Amino acid sequence: MGQTYGPVYLNEYNGTANELMAKYGKQIKPVKEVGKVDVKDANAIIDKYLKPAWGVAKTPAEKQEIGRLADTLREASGQAKQNG
After folding, report:
1. How buried is 71 (Cβ within 10 angstroms: 0-12 exposed, 13-18 middle, 19+ buried)?
2. Do 17 and 28 form a contact (C-beta atoms < 8 A)?
């Protein structure tokens, strides 16, 4: 049969995780924010890796993805987005 989690066969369960936990009286704990990226580290990654990659990107889609990744690092370090 399917994988079990306690008395429930996960392959046969058709509800949400919240419904499953409520049914068995368990509460889902909120995920804690692990921490932020240091501004210096984020900028170092952007400057050393992402900017050179952006410079040699061959398509606008590649440049857009690299910009998105840089903005993700900026947001994680508390900086403002620059690409959208």
Report:
1. middle
2. yes
